């Protein structure tokens, strides 16, 4: 009995001796985690504060007209963001319009239709596309894709739709050089496909097999299983993947700078050159000063606001999908 009492006392002393250092390490860990979270917030606040401070003179000088004006004249110091904002939104929208169906199709093929021996090579190819630097996409788009696009798409389509109402306005190229909003959208679509496809594939793989087998068991076709079982189950993740791709498309700089044309001109044609917020900043920031620099910083503020709005929309859509 005495021996048992001594063992219990020894174990209690040992536990006490270990508890004090453990509490200290736990406290250090909590402080480190808190510091990491605060560091992220401080960095974000610092970035936002610096671009607001730099862009405020432009907002103060031009007011709301900075957003609604299409002027961008360095000589007369007249600046407006309308062309760049519309170019950013148009190229990103076209990228989603082209890339999202392809991405979902790839994900469905890999999870439902692809034979086992081909699944890994196809998946590795998709992942390899995600690792290609954006400047490579831009160079390929400018020197390889744009000339072919002008020769085989822009010129024939422009000859067919010239003079037609609406369609002729949207699909007519004044100067069929191959660069423009649609070209930028296509290049962006190629860039976002790996991200959207990979996330969608992972989510489809996580759906319980019993759901698919049950659907096949009652006589559903592959299309019916995909439409009524897989896509509804993974809808929240698919929306998140699409929003991630949209964020990538909105902020892409180098690839778009190569192929968008960098023209400050409003045009209803998706074949005509334009500019985006990121491409304009990249082209002019190095040599900008004075009000031009302030205008570029103000463009950065607008891009930040656009991406923030996209984040809010993504949150609302995912919340609605979860409720449904």
TrEMBL record:
GO terms for molecular function: phosphate transmembrane transporter activity. The chain crosses the membrane at residues 31-59, 79-110, 122-146, 179-199, 295-317. GO terms for cellular component: plasma membrane. InterPro entries: MetI-like (IPR000515), MetI-like_sf (IPR035906), Phosphate_PstC (IPR011864), Phosphate_Transport_Permease (IPR051124). SUPFAM superfamilies: MetI-like (SSF161098). It comes from the Bacteria. GO terms for biological process: phosphate ion transport. Residues 85-314 form the ABC transmembrane type-1 domain. It is a multi-pass membrane protein. It is found in: Cell inner membrane; Cell membrane. Part of the binding-protein-dependent transport system for phosphate; probably responsible for the translocation of the substrate across the membrane. PANTHER family: PHOSPHATE TRANSPORT SYSTEM PERMEASE PROTEIN PST, PHOSPHATE TRANSPORT SYSTEM PERMEASE PROTEIN PSTC. Belongs to the binding-protein-dependent transport system permease family. CysTW subfamily. This is Phosphate transport system permease protein. The lineage of its organism: Bacteria, Pseudomonadati, Pseudomonadota, Alphaproteobacteria, Hyphomicrobiales. The gene is pstC.
């Amino acid at each position: 009995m005495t021996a048992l009492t001594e063992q219990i006392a020894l174990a209690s002393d040992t536990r006490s001796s270990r508890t004090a250092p453990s509490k200290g390490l736990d406290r250090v860990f909590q402080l480190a985690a808190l510091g990491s979270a605060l560091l992220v917030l401080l960095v974000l606040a610092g970035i936002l504060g610096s671009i607001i401070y730099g862009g405020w003179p432009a907002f103060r000088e031009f007011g709301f007209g900075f957003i609604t004006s299409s002027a961008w004249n360095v000589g007369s110091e007249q600046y407006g963001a309308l062309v760049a904002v519309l170019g950013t939104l148009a190229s990103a929208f076209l990228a989603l319009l082209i890339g999202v169906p392809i991405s979902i199709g790839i994900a469905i093929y890999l999870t439902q239709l692809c034979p086992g021996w081909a699944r890994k090579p196809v998946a590795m190819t998709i992942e390899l596309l995600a690792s290609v630097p954006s400047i490579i996409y831009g160079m390929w788009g400018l020197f390889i894709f744009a000339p072919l696009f002008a020769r085989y798409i822009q010129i024939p389509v422009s000859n067919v739709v010239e003079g037609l109402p609406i369609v002729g306005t949207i699909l007519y190229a004044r100067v069929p050089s191959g660069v423009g909003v649609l070209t930028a959208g296509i290049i962006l679509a190629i860039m976002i496909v790996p991200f959207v496809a990979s996330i969608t594939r992972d989510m489809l793989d996580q759906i319980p097999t019993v759901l698919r087998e049950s659907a096949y068991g009652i006589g559903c076709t592959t299309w019916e299983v995909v439409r009524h079982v897989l896509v509804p189950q993974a809808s929240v993740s698919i929306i998140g993947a699409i929003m991630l791709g949209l964020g990538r498309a909105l902020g892409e700089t180098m690839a778009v700078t190569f192929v968008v044309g960098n023209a400050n001109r409003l045009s209803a044609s998706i074949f005509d050159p334009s500019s985006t917020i990121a491409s304009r900043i990249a082209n002019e920031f190095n040599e900008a000063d004075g009000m031009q620099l302030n205008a570029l910083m103000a463009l950065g503020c607008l891009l930040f606001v656009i991406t923030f709005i996209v984040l809010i929309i993504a949150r609302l859509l995912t919340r609605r999908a979860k409720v449904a």
